[in-house]
Write a structure and sequence with these properties.
The protein is mainly α. The protein has helices at 12-20, 38-46, 48-57, 72-80, 87-100, 117-126, 133-143, and strands spanning 61-62, 65-66. A two-stranded antiparallel ribbon has the order 1-2.
């Protein structure tokens, strides 16, 4: 486990060291982390993965308009990760973007802003070692409601950060 600050938060440097399996002051006992967890894989398939399939097949309509543009990180995965859409790659890209945009390795990862449920649950499982079983079930229930409603947009799970 990486070292967290006194409030229990991880910083960008620690998370990158964890993802890259690098020994550092933040990651004193490096262990290889998985590219995805079972929860993040399941959620990806019904969230951004499902949306991406619709975009690529020309079947995603939102507000009466056909959506032709894929999510940036998925295109980057095609280019730099052999089309392997993993949350490890997604998180690494997210942090690299933050660092390129002025953040430092010592700045804290604030996962409260992350709306992508697959990425959020991956962070909670891999970085903080949380049990996300119940949260995963709630996300799946959100995207597959039993009341006949349909979810028109991904990354909009109401109450996501309160599930843990």
């Amino acid at each position: 486990m990486i070292r967290l600050d006194k409030t229990g938060r991880a910083n960008y440097g620690a998370v990158l060291d964890l993802l890259d399996c690098v020994k550092s002051e933040w990651n004193p006992d490096p262990k290889r982390v998985c590219n995805d967890t079972e929860s993040s894989k399941m959620i990806f398939q019904i969230e951004e993965g499902g949306e991406d399939q619709k975009v690529q097949s020309g079947n995603l309509i939102r507000n009466g308009k056909k959506i032709n543009h894929r999510r940036d990180w998925l295109v980057l995965a095609d280019i730099y990760n052999n089309g392997d859409y993993t949350q490890k790659f997604h998180l690494h890209n997210y942090i690299d973007f933050k660092l390129h945009d002025g953040a430092t390795r010592a700045d804290y990862l604030y996962d409260g802003r992350i709306r992508n449920a697959a990425l959020y649950l991956y962070i909670r499982e891999i970085v903080y070692e949380d049990d996300v079983t119940d949260a995963c079930e709630k996300v799946i229930n959100f995207y597959n409601p039993t009341d006949g409603q349909t979810v028109s947009q991904v990354n909009n799970v109401h109450g996501l950060h309160g599930f843990l």
